[in-house]
Predict the structure.
Amino acid sequence: MKTRTLGRAGPQVSAIGLGCMGMSAFYGGSDEATSLGVIHRALDLGVTFFDTAEVYGPHTNELLVGKALKDRRDQAFVATKFGINRLADGSMLTDGTPANIRRAIEGSLSRLGMDHVDLYYLHRTDPATPIEETVGAMAELVTEGKVRFLGLSEAAPETLRRAHATHPITALQTEYSLWSREPEDELFGLCEDLGVGFVPYSPLGRGFLSGDIRSIDDLGPDDSRRMIPRFQGENFQKNLDLVEAVKAIAADKGVTAAQLALAWVLRQSDNLVPIPGTRRVRTLEENVAATEIVLTDEDVARIEAIFPKGAATGHRYAPAAQAALNR
């Protein structure tokens, strides 16, 4: 497995990580034994970077990751996130207060069965709490040895600047893929300038860019993607037409659409470490193999021609979640 440095002075991690969210939340039911097998296979393939969060489940995903890594902790770089609390009615509340940080880290360490977290993200910015206050409290965890590195998720450029001035931010996690390219506008350059690593989540567009989702009926009734505008109505077909064009280029190279999409992300910068998620060993192996695919300038030009920036139709989140993004 190839490796990359997470940020200018950060740790070495596998060039591609594993997002574990879908094993426990949002995409319908899953099987624990199968999920454990995926994580173990990832370790065998040299994947070291594993991503989870307090809100996934909630809590059950951290328990799963902790169980999977119990006897192989030294092989894993573990990232988890706090700052989104799920209320009894199912709604989400952002909370970046120091008190919540203390509550959250103790819970995460207990569920993971670990004495420290390698990378601790603020999952969403709390508009009621200054980012300096949040990051200052997170920095105390570094001093105490409970956390090694700090990160932010879906933070606007100015938020990242202010946070980094309070304590070095090692990684910014934000959605990025062929159909979500907003980070190119300012965040990529800012991360390079500050020495912050960029971690693209959903680099396969929540599975859509694989070409395996042909109809909304391919998603279970409890799959949250049904609520995302890009998966709905006319948007679905327009976006599927783009994926069909990607599949044609992939076929010419003898790879899958998913591998082509991941190889495209990896080629954008050595500062990127994507974390595609999956619940299947076969898909994991396919994703890992994408790190060996070499795209030529001609390949990239063909991809850009049929899937230019801004080509995707529809917002990337349902209205409430879209409104919570720090922009």
